[in-house]
Amino acid sequence: MYKETSNPYVFKYLQTAIRGNGIPYVYLPKVPPHEEILDFGGKWQRQPLPPEWDDWKDVELYENAKIKKHNDIQKKRIEEGLEYQKMLPPYIHPKIEEFVDREWDRRINGVWFYLKINGKKTPVYITGLYYFILQWWNPSFEVHYRDTDREIGYWIEYWEQDPEAMGGILGTMRQYGKSVWLGAWALERTSRTFGGHLGMQGETEKSISEFYRDHVLYGFDRLVDFFTPKYDKDGKQKGGIDFVATKKRNHRLSKDELSDALNARIDYGGANINFYNGRTLTGYVGEESGKVVEVDVYERHKKVKPALRRRNGKAFHASTSDEISEKAKSFYTMVMESDYSDKKANGETKSGLYFAFLPSHHAYSYDQYGMPRSEENLRALQLDREAYSDNPKDYTIHCRQYPITIHEYFYVDANKCQFNVRVLQETLVRIRENPNLVAKVDFIWQDKEDGKVMYVHDTKGRFSVPWLPKDLDREANLVHDHGKDAGEYRFEPLNDVKFCIGVDPIDYGGSGSGGRLSKPVAIVKRKYDKMVDGEINANIKQERMIEKYNYRTGIPICTYDYRPLDPMIFYEHIIKICRFYGCKVHIEATRGQAMIQHFKRRGYGLFVMNRPPITRTSTRYSQNTEGTPASQGLTQTYTAMIAHDVQYFGHCYFSEPLVEDLLKFDPKNTLEHDFAVSWGYTMLAEMDEGESEESVEIDLSFLARQQFPKYETY
């Protein structure tokens, strides 16, 4: 597969790269003569043992009984010091020997057979592993030939032979059968390796235990005897399989008995990152790696890599699409760093693995010969999606269950999303496909503190921006200095008509839910400008939503999410962007009091936005406070505003963390969602009554609709 031959093959179904072209060719053996190609009438058929098999076995038993009697006599004569005859080896029926040798050759080297493709019998090659699965492996259900599995076999054999690969990650739709591949590969790799050790891990110890029982042990218990290596029959194989000679009571194993055993092992462990750290592995199975949330699955893989390198071991990970947890971001990173088309100077991918994805339209249904009905499947899937066109959640659930692209494979679970899931998922795809969409910058004082602010490009910058003002003299640093005598209110913003900022600060010394270390987040919005994007109303917004109009205003244009050890550094970062954009900042007041006081001490009191009128609910007392405290009622208000914004402007969002957070946003647990909350405060900032009369009015009638569950008001 890896070494070049005169018979190259190009993948038709399997996508072996994420951004590039992937594996250009795999190399098949030369097509053998017609008489050496298996022919079952153009369709694969599992073959039973020869009808004479039991008769041959009876002859073996009879002959070996005579041999045992002869050898026992000779052993006794040796013990008595008498002359003895040569010991006889075990008898193997020549027909059995011929059959077993043939099957071992096919298991190791693969086989050619005739498959009917487009009505014509065509010779196709399957690898030894796939032959083993089709002919001899016995999962809990019947296995049929599928042409897509032929390619999976090619892909596995390729990275098995590639010295620069440490294994692979397979992505498929649910119920495809990836567990059969994982289980058979685990047994195949270990049962042919002297001193081998294959480890397995999954989401939890319980889940990997069930996988081992159902997909490794079940098939092993039903394996034909000539493919079953010696193993410890005294154990019940609950925790693994030991391929060692079985100890006999009051009998010490001979040297021959010990040397005949593989002395290999298959076992499994819990989700623990360090379970296989420091060990030596010849193989590793990562079952449903995309579901692992208790630990960082990519960090776990990095711990396993040294264990594999010691004996050139390989790892095989797999996860089905709708089993991938929305919290398993490290699995996404591991996949992205397993791109065959993106290798380091030493020829390896960053993870050492190769990712392959099988689109659902190639795996949805097959004809009687095992050929995928790809075009028919694609039409069926598209019709299903069209039926869900008015229901974004059901649409994205369908995409997640039956992904056609790699990006759909990573769609977030849409069941709990508060917003238009389809818009957000498609935006996330666009962002990930265009990594240069944003630049990293830092904002610094140009000459002196409290003077002009400028930006500098820095790949490690704290701010992400898709756009920056071109004319800095006219569009930036629009601030009036009232002089030192003005004290807390020395500096005043002059550009609120163009920009607004929302900040979700943090309480230093505290943490988020579950001990998560929160980050302060700030988001700058460029307010809608009809001089740039034209007049707007409900009809225009609807039309632009359909055509995916490229808005330049009315969208977020800067994000910040950095947690310095010194909170004063964070406060100063926000002061700089407030000065640069010349606008107020809307601060979540519950955890933002220290920040508000810092702004005032520095003379930036006028940059702190008072509570927007839309958030004031009391008629008994004034709520014209600096900043706005969090509350369930406030959350419902900005959740509705974000929903409206996502519907019409969400396709122009640029921030991956913001979009990801909106997809997972839970209004009842806002502590987990720094970006969504910050964006909510930015949306509310746009409603500040102090903005210029030139600003565009925003239709808030949608707030009256009961789009979301009601929460207790304050």
Question: Could you explain the architecture of this structure?
Answer:
This protein has 714 residues and is an alpha/beta fold. The protein folds into four domains: 225 residues, P-loop containing nucleotide triphosphate hydrolases (Rossmann fold, 3-Layer(aba) Sandwich), CATH 3.40.50; 96 residues, no CATH class; 60 residues, no CATH class; 270 residues, Nucleotidyltransferase, domain 5, CATH 3.30.420.240. Helices cover 34% and strands 14% of the residues. It is built from 21 helices and 20 strands. Strands 7-8-6-9-10-5-11 form a seven-stranded mixed beta sheet, sandwiched between helices. Strands 13-12-14-19-18-17-20 form a seven-stranded mixed beta sheet. A hairpin with a 7-residue loop joins strand 12 and strand 13. Helix 2 packs across helix 3. The termini are far apart. The relative contact order is 0.08. The C terminus is likely disordered.
From the structure above, extract its key features:
Rossmann fold
Q: How would you classify the helix and strand content by structural class?
A: alpha/beta
Main sheet record:
7 strands, mixed
> What proportion of the residues is helical, as a percent range?
25-40%
What's the number of domains? Answer: 4
CATH class of the largest domain: Alpha Beta
For the record, give the distance between the C-alpha atoms at the N and C termini, rounded to a whole number.
67 Å
Whole-number radius of gyration?
33 Å
Please list the strands of the largest sheet in the order they lie side by side.
7-8-6-9-10-5-11
Query: What is the overall silhouette?
Result: elongated
Helical segment tally? 21
Number of strands: 20
Strand proportion: 5-15%
CATH architecture of the largest domain: 2-Layer Sandwich
